Structure formats: structure tokens, C-alpha cells
Amino acid sequence: MRKNIKIIGSGFSALAAACYLAKDDNKVTIFEKNSTIGGRARQLKKDGFTFDIGPSWYWMPDVFEKFFGDFNKKPSDYYKLTKLSPAYKVFFGINEFVTIADNLPDIVKTFEQIEVGSGAKLEAFIKEAQSNYNIAIKDLVYRPGESPLELITIETATRVNQFFSNISKDVRKKFTNTKLIQILEFPVLFLGAKPSDTPSFYSFMNYADFGLGTWQPTGGMYSVIQGMEQLAKELGVTIHTNSNISKIIVKDKKAVALVVNGEEIHADIILSGADYHHSETLLDKEHRQYSEKYWDKKTFAPSSLLFYVGFDKKLKNVEHHNLFFDVDFDVHASEIYDHPKWPEEPLFYANFTSLTNNDLAPKDCENGFFLIPIAPGLEDTPELRATYFKKIISRFEKITEQSVENNIIFIESFCVKDFIKEYNSYKGNAYGMANTLLQTAFLRPKLKSKKVKSLYFTGQLTVPGPGVPPALISGKLVADLIKKHR
After folding, report:
1. Rounded Cα–Cα distance for residues 31 and 143 (Å)
2. Is 173:183 a contact under the CB 8 Å cutoff?
């Protein structure tokens, strides 16, 4: 029987769920509070420059292929994809950098040049990471987190020790060079936790990095959102923007309606792709599954201070993706997770998508996206933002050996207050809840409400976790669960 399903939010997970639910012959309507769709993956256009506001790394292309394949489509039906060569560049100081190639054999050579004997060790490490990837991404993450038994398979039984060691220990057992260690620890930061708090099994992120490579959609990550929007509309999904949800109405312990811009709109099933904590505040207190104490005890992924910068000249000595690890990695990580405060000397990341696609900046100009990871919930003021931009742009100039500050046309920023205002993000986090051992799979907030019938959740605070590919998977998981319970 066809169901009337209302979805809150229009990020990757909500759009994915909408597509699957519409394919299953449901009447699906999305309500987005902002003026444009995409959730954290929206787009900024200014003075001829185009920026992805949020996600900027396209990893795990097989997950995108699987998503579109479920509708007998291909990503190329909706957007063009290019493998970046090189994948990215890591700076450790002036004239001190490591360039990561677009293929494993060349990366092995790079490692060997830096640390004799590390090439063979890297090959063995990535082989194990690939095996973990095949188990995790092709099987485990497509399970809905309803039971711990989901994690018990013949393959995981042989790897149980990997859940009780961590990435940091494993990497340090094999490699001694600090640069190589930091490069290998970097990918798990996408999971929202320190490498020392991330189970060894998650080395599959290293295979995603070195084995599958880094890709770029023409037009940026927002092209993927636009492709998913097109697919959703082809399947009959209706999308409303500027539609703020102020309440989820429950009658007889069943979700029956949403209050949208003050108007009560009936639903057979309600699915929230918005921030999980915020979604539960739309319910009366007795219908919420998780207390404020519960959320406060959880380990959240970092927030971010982001800058979108227009330069009136082309930049040199940089690649599409750039990591600036010229300061102490462990100290900054501690300032995010152990003793939350604004970092003294922050690591930062920068991308320049106009290097890959000239259409994203005016002629002879460059667009710059700068990101500083910070602890969620920090004080956020214009003065702090300005101070930290000055910190990173001066280091950027020294390390890349070029003057750029006088070539800045404009600077737009986005930080904790904006994550809260734009996305109702808990403490202004940028990536959701971290994937630590005690926040994995069935230990994460549930896709289906335990207290209210016909109410479901999807996104980076639930299963399987933070990141764009997991968001697509989360949408599929919740759609499958709705079909099962229906």
C-alpha cells in the first residue's frame, strides 16, 4: 500500500532515502528549511566564484556507483567525474612536502624514498586495508545497526583483534618516519575521531585513499547533490525549500504530522535527515529516545572554521587538495578532543577547485577553500575568525612561497554559530558523531524511533556514520527498514 512519507532535510542521506522510498512506490515529499537543497553540501556563489560550502573530497566512487546503479543509472548520467592526479599534497614546511600520486605503485615509491623499507610495508598495509574495505563497505555498513549480531561474520571473527587495537598503534608499528605516519593517519580523520581512538579495522579508509583514489566532479561536490535531486524528481519526489519544521506531532504514540511554516501537514511516515538531536527536540519530551545527558557524553566529530576566499590571480605551488601539517599534529588533535579549546597552532586544509575547473572562478583568478578543524561548542566571534585567518594565510604564504594576502577580493567565513543556525547542528559539529569503538554500528542512535511508531532517522549521527558515502548508505538503510516494517 502506497504511503505518504514526509522527509525533513535535503542532505545526501535524505535525498538518497527519498529516491529509494519513491522507487518503492511511495508518495515522498522533502521539506528543507534553507533556500537551497543539499544540507551541509550546499554551494556558495559570489562575484563569479563558486565554492562547495561543506564536503569537498569525493572518495569511495564505488559507493556512488552502487547508489545510482540501484536505479539502473550511472553517476555519469548526472555529472562528470575526473580522477585527480596527483590526489593531494601534504606540506610539512617550506620546501618540505609529500605529493600523493593517483596510483598505489607511485605512492609506494614515494614512501620508499622517504623511509627505506617502507614501500613493502605499505603494500602489505594496503592489502590488509583492502580486505577490510571489502568486508566493511561491501557488507557490514549495509546493515541497519539493530543488533550486535550484525557484526558477527566469518570474516570479522578472524579480525576481532582489530577492534581492540587502533590505527595509531598499527601505523607506528610499521613506520617510523613522522611524515609517513601523519599521511597514513589522515584518512581516519574523516571518521571524526583521533587515530588513537579509531579501531584498526577502519584502516579501510587508507584503501579508499591510496587504492581507489581521489576524484572530483566537474562543478564541485554540489554537482552530486544536483544529480541526486534530478534522480529524485524523475522518481516523483516533491521538494520544498524555505520550509521550516517546528514540530513533529505524535498521536497515540505514532508520528502523524509535521508543522511546516506553521501549517500542520499529515504523514503516514516521517523521516528526519536533519540533525538527530535537533530532530528529537521537535518532539514533546516524553517521546524522545535520548536525553541531553546522553548527547553530552557522546564523542562528536570536530566542528570547523571555514573560509571561502576569492583571489584575483592564479596561485602556484599548490594542488587541488592540500594539507598543511607544518605544526604538531598530536597537539592540535588534543585541543579538539582532550582539552577542547581554540588551537594555538592549527593544522589546516585548503582546496582550489578552480585549478581543476576554470569555470569555478573568473579568468586568471582562483577560488580558495580553507578549513581549520576545531572542537565543537567553542566560542565563535568575528574577532576569533579574523585572528585565525591571519594565522593560516601568513603560514600559507611562507610555505607555498608566494604573496597572496594583497590579492584577496573577498573572504566569507563559516563556523560554529553558522553550523547551528543553518543546520541545527549539535554544538555546531561539522561531521556528526565520531566512529569510535563504542559508537559503531548498533551502538549509534537508531534509524527507527524506539518510542514513536512511523518515525525514522537518517544521516551522520546514526548508522553507519560520518562522511558522504556513509550518508548515501544511511539513506538506503532507513528506506529498507521502512519497507521492512511497513
Report:
1. 27
2. no
Between vectors from CA 27 to CA 22 and to CA 28, what angle results, nearest 5°? 65
Mean residue pLDDT of the chain comes to 96
Provide the strand spans (E) within 343-464: 348-351, 366-374, 408-414, 455-457
Q: Express each pLDDT in 68-118 by its tens digit.
A: 999 999 999 999 999 999 999 999 999 999 999 999 999 999 999 999 999
Comparing C-alpha atoms, which of 90, 86, 69 is closest to residue 78?
A: 69
Cell of 35: 533556500
State pLDDT tens for residues 391-401. Answer: 999 999 999 99
Name the more confident of 318 and 149.
318
Please tell me the distance from the alpha carbon of residue 50 to that of residue 219, in angstroms, as a whole number.
8
Distance CA 21, CA 16 (A): 9
Which string of b and e fits 83-111 if b means at least 16 CB within 10 Å?
A: ebebbbbbbbeeeebbebbbebeebbebb
Residue written as cell 605551488? 317
- Please report which helix (H) or strand (E) contains residue 394, including its range: helix 382-400
Classify the C-alpha dihedral 134-140-141-143 as positive or negative: positive
Could you give the CA distance from residue 335 to residue 7 in angstroms, rounded to a whole number? 36
Q: pTM of the entire structure?
A: 0.97
255 and 269 in contact (C-beta within 8 Å)? yes
Beta strands, E only, 14-79: 27-31, 43-46, 49-52
All residues at 6 or more sequence positions from 205 whose CB lies less than 8 Å from its CB, including other chains: 129, 187, 188, 190, 191
Does residue 464 have a cis bond before it (omega within 30 degrees)?
yes
* Segment 201-241, tens digit of pLDDT: 999 999 999 999 999 999 999 999 999 999 999 999 999 99
Residue with cell 541531553: 292
**Residue 445 contacts residue 461 (beta carbons within 8 Å):** yes
**Is the pLDDT at 119 greater than 90, yes or no?**
yes
Cα distance from N-terminal residue to C-terminal residue, the chain: 9
